[in-house]
Amino acid sequence: KHMGSRAVVIVCRDADAARSRFGVCAGESGIIVTRTGRRFFDARDVEIALLDRVRGAMRATGFWDEFKTDWACIDAELMPWSAKAQSLIKQQYAAVGAASQAALAATRTALAATRDRGVDVAELSDRYGVKAAQCAAFASAYRHYCWPVSGVNDLKLAPFHLLATEGKVHVDRHHVWHMETLGAICDAAEDDARVLMRTPFRQVDLSDADSERSAVDWWIKRTGAGGEGMVVKPLEFIVRGKRGLVQPAVKCRGREYLRIIYGPEYTSADQLERLRRRGLGRKRGLAMAEFALGVESLERFVRREPLRRIHECVFGVMAMESEPVDPRL
């Protein structure tokens, strides 16, 4: 699991292909949008440059001929997180980090002065020492996912799903196929900055305890080094169980990332106990419905159904996105 912002990349072989398939008449040959369909970049030159990198790598692998297509829809993560969430970081996370560290520094100074007067404040001092360490960890956690961006060479794009090409939605392919197909495109990118990056992954045999232990150790190592975590998925893109569709993915995030989301005191025992009591059923239900509608919208698009039929699915997803659900889940 990369710590960036979700991006959907629509890349066409050229402007003629974009005009023919998408009705785009402004000379554009692709677009990068957020998960909710908004244009990802305010600066068109950055978007164009990034699309050129993707297109060049696809051309180098013979993608267009192999898939008999002039366009592709790719699900990806775009980093750094600060490239899209700068205002959120400044107004929320950085503000909390700065205020908490300043306040706790003053508190600990006052406690030290109280102790010097012979008052026993050892327990209180220890408690606020823990809080200070937690707030320092909070500030360190969000800074890990931020770096300056002055151009396309400062970005990282990690694709993980080849969603659709002309006449085909690729949900019939297992996830290893998706990772290897897109990994080959990343490897073919001709740039020293390595803007396109593979996503590390592992296959886990759930009947093998050693395989499971190895995956857990891998997760611990990655999150310990500052990674966000991992996403656990069935091997197949769509799996049905006794109760219908199986959840397509579960994010398993590390403690330091979760400290950003739930606050500096996330790892305190009382906080963890409170969080364990949350109800996740509603969130899971909405996620499954959105997943099904997303796949259906792609299927209708590649079948060249009228736009109103595609928009039925899109509006359904938008309606679900407006449902009041804790965004931290």
Name the features:
329 residues, alpha+beta, 11 helices, single chain, 51% helix, D-amino Acid Aminotransferase, Chain A, domain 1, two-stranded antiparallel ribbon
What does this entry look like structurally?
- The strands form three sheets. Strands 2-1-3-4-5 form a five-stranded antiparallel β-sheet. The protein has a two-stranded antiparallel ribbon with strand order 6-9.
- It has four domains: 1-80 and 149-201, D-amino Acid Aminotransferase, Chain A, domain 1 (2-Layer Sandwich), CATH 3.30.470.30; 86-143; 202-277, no CATH class; 278-329.
- The chain is globular and about 80 Å long.
- The chain contains eleven helices and nine strands.
- It has helices at 15-22, 44-60, 63-66, 82-116, 122-143, 175-188, 209-224, 255-262, 269-276, 281-302, 307-321, and strands spanning 5-12, 30-34, 71-79, 156-165, 168-169, 229-232, 240-241, 244-245, 250-253.
- The model has no long low-confidence stretch (mean pLDDT 90).
- With 329 residues, the protein is α+β, with helices and mostly antiparallel strands.
- A hairpin with a 2-residue loop joins strand 7 (240-241) and strand 8.
